[in-house]
Amino acid sequence: MVALLMGFISLTPSFPSLPCFPPLSFNKRRPFFPIAAMSDDPIRDWILSEGKATQITKICPIGGGCINLASRYDTDAGSFFVKTNRSIGPSMFEGEAHGLGAMFETKTIRVPRPFKVGPLPTGGSYIIMEFVEFGFSRGDQSVLGRKLAEMHKAGKSSKGFGFDVENTIGSTPQINTWTSDWIEFYAEHRLGYQLKLALDQYGDSTIYQRGQRLMKNLAPLFENVVIEPCLLHGDLWSGNISSDKNGEPVILDPACYYGHNEAEFGMSWCAGFGGSFYNSYFEVIPKQPGFEKRRDLYMLYHYLNHYNLFGSGYRSSALSIIDDYLRMLKV
After folding, report:
1. What string of DSSP letters covers 32-54?
2. Is the pTM of this model over 0.85?
3. Count of Cβ atoms closer than 10 Å to residue 269 Cβ
4. Is 50 exceeded by the pLDDT of residue 14?
5. What is the mean pLDDT of the chain?
6. What is the structure's pLDDT at 65?
7. Residue 111 forms beta bridges with which residues?
8. Tens digits of per-residue pLDDT, 98-145?
9. CB 127 within 8 A of CB 96
10. What b/e sequence results for 117-136 when a residue is b if at least 16 CB atoms lie within 10 Å of its CB, and e otherwise?
11. CB-count burial class (<10 Å; 0-12, 13-18, 19+) for 217
12. Nearest to residue 96, comparing CAs of 195, 228, 4, 197?
């Protein structure tokens, strides 16, 4: 989601104003500085054991944000990307790691491989993952479309719609309770959850009541549609799409779950997908009847989330989509 510009950190190593520096070392003759033992630094411990490094040669900050901090750890065994959060426990990063791991296992599109999630001894949490050296563009859109469709085709679930863990969309909890019916899942755990947040946070009974009417009348939008639970990135916008140094597409910062493949395009209003992207995608997974009628329905979830996170600037877009569907469905 767009909130990641303000929160989650891009992996792009292009912040010249942030200096790289060698690993900290404390002078033991100055006891008034707190000296962290090796066992008190789980990030360093993992890198120097399971990460198979013998020394950390450089630690380089990569940007900053209001949610997480990010660093590149250079070692004699390669580089690692580390995100830390000093106030949130491991559950948020566990959700991210599960998503990255699931996408990685499809062996289709490149994602940073997750290695380790854990708590920090002073509070908060961390995640260690593969460091991806990015190129200078977002890559070829036709390749992105094809590889994304291949991921959707390869990543299937026998449990229905949902995910093994709850995660977040930006900083909003995303409920992933396994559900056998897609319409029920999307209505309750995506639209319904966001509508309730808007009611609780803003007292917005108008958008809540109209949204509830829409939730109860979604079935006509899915007539003659075959819906399989596909592995979705879940938050695919331009800030979460890049390419590696070879020009291959890379996607990151997911909010994964198994859902209708078309829901992946819910952030298309700020993803910049062009004709070549969709043409390549639909060559792998053909477009189904009524696709155009459902596009705004999947955007609605993200507009509601932005409304709940950033305020009234997104309310009119969300309400307009709801009202358009109520007129279309005549309910």
Report:
1. TS----GGG-HHHHHHTTTT--S
2. yes
3. 16
4. no
5. 89
6. 55
7. none
8. 999 999 999 999 999 999 999 999 999 999 999 999 998 777 999 999
9. yes
10. bbebeeebbbbbbbbbebbe
11. middle
12. 4
Q: What is the pLDDT of residues 58-85, one digit of tens each?
A: 999 986 555 789 999 999 999 999 999 9
| Dist. CA 249–CA 106, nearest whole Å | 15
Gyration radius from the chain CA atoms: 21
What domains, with CATH codes, occur in the chain?
Answer: 2-130 (3.30.200.20), 141-329 (3.90.1200.10)
Cα 157 off chain centre by: 19
Instruction: Please tell me the distance from the alpha carbon of residue 194 to that of residue 301, in angstroms, as a whole number.
Output: 7
What is the DSSP annotation of 67-111? S-EEEEEEEBTEEEEEEEESSS-THHHHHHHHHHHHHHHTTSSB-
Structure tokens belonging to residue 206:
């108008």
User: Residue written as tokens 């979705």?
Assistant: 232
pLDDT at 19 over 80: no
Closest among 38, 30, 35 to 56, alpha carbons compared: 38
Residue 39 pLDDT: 55
Q: Which positions are catalytic?
A: 235
Which among 109, 96, 65 is positioned nearest to 254, based on CA atoms? 96
